[in-house]
Protein 1
Amino acid sequence: MDSVDLTKYWFESADNDYETMKVLYNNKKNTWCLFIGHLVIEKILKGLYAKNNPDNPIAPKIHNLILLSQKANIEVPIGIREKIQIINTFNISARYDDYKKSFDAKCTNNYTKEQVKNIEEVKKWLKEQ
């Protein structure tokens, strides 16, 4: 696949995960909602990586959103970067049982609502790049 195909692949996959995130949010599955939200942002960043690295469009197999944004060669403003840093923690917190208990307690309906809004804001900004 070339960079255009990979960018399209990652963006479509992110859109599908976004729909899943909304279903989880509406059903108050907060921990998994935010975990999938992390995947949404990760996949958009991998799509941007493919777009911005046409000579080597295969995105690195990493989940760190900060590192992915750097490797995607995009200038991220401080406000978006701060949101990405928070979203970045959802991957580990939701994945491993020892982190999951404390993360479950943190994922109140209000916290999740705020973070879904942040995910949507970051998603929109990244898609404009």
Protein 2
Amino acid sequence: MLGSLIRFWSKGWIDTVYVKPAFHFTYFGFEWVRPLGHMGMHLLYAVVIIATLFISLGLFYRIAATVFFLGFTYIELIDVTTYLNHYYFISLVSFLLIWVPANAHFALDARWKWTVPRFIVPLWCISIIRFQMAVVYVFAGLAKLNEDWLLKALPLRIWLPARSYLPLVGSYMYQPWVAYLFSWFGALYDLFIVLFLLQKKTRPFAYVVVVVFHVATAIFFPGIGMFPYVMILCSLVFFDAGFHERLLSYLPFYQSSELQNQSNDVLPYAHKHPKWVVVAITCYVIVQLAVPLRFLLYPGRLFWSEEGYRFSWRVMLMEKTGVAYFTVKDKASGHIQEVNNADYLTELQEKMMCTQPDLILKYAHFLADTYHKKGVAQPQVFAQVYVALNGQHSQPLIDSSVNLAAQPLQWGHYTWVLPYKKSAP
């Protein structure tokens, strides 16, 4: 994360993504999260970057972990259009790090006796991280068990030809069987890799597969960002303590925990209120299992309406493009004005908004407020939105006769989203 944050800063994306846009798509319930301006956002990034160093060194660990979680999550809550699964994953893991004693052994806090050194910790401290990894993989695998992914190799059949420039393998990217191979292997990998990582006999071979799979993903789909590297490193949590001891033994001034455990004053880590730990872990597990399944509460095709899509670990499952045309009508005079989206949105924001109904509604409310300030007494906002899903013909996404400014933002189903109609083969 230190490298990722510095990379983001060095490319000037702090200003591009968070400072320059005139409007931000906030998360429902987090409308109070706002960008902090040029100086404020750069200062926030600096604080979060420093926190990554302190966490890595185990220095003021609890404070650093808390600062990182709050700071990084605040940044990600500023705009929905920047949502990525691995950013969500990082927020969750950083939250868990607040509660586990990751500074108990090989850390400056322990070395300088700012915390009591502990060389044995409860299994839940490791298992909760493994559980979070398993949630990512298994739900990603379950999401691939659909007709488009398995029977049509979509959207990989659309994406892979764009990688024909790659040496050695580029000429194969137009072959349908390659897309099917990638699709089926991806589904099987996500569904079963955790099972093999948990078994001591298969763990080394499984980790080799992890590395190969994610390196290939990074090569073929560079737009996925840091996610492959995050998963490669985090998967090491499945290895036992002996493996990590051997890795650490190559570092200077390292003392084996076996020798340190011979000391009479060494105590295992134990929480003061174990019953509350059980309650907290149970609640966390339930939430992590329930959130990806909330799409079952909504009617229609998930990939079309995207109701319950976010936070469900659906990684690279669809190719969805769209265009949206907005008009603002003065109810009193009947005067109609066309909206130039580029006046209010960045290219990324417009691209993401055009295919997601909740973002379309947020933007419509923003336009109503904006035109009301311009003197339109009773602004009504209408939109014509056309979307193409997984190479199908584009079709209307929403009812263009509905005044979006009058529609409430809600958790429930948006009835003005038109049903998906499958194109004829």
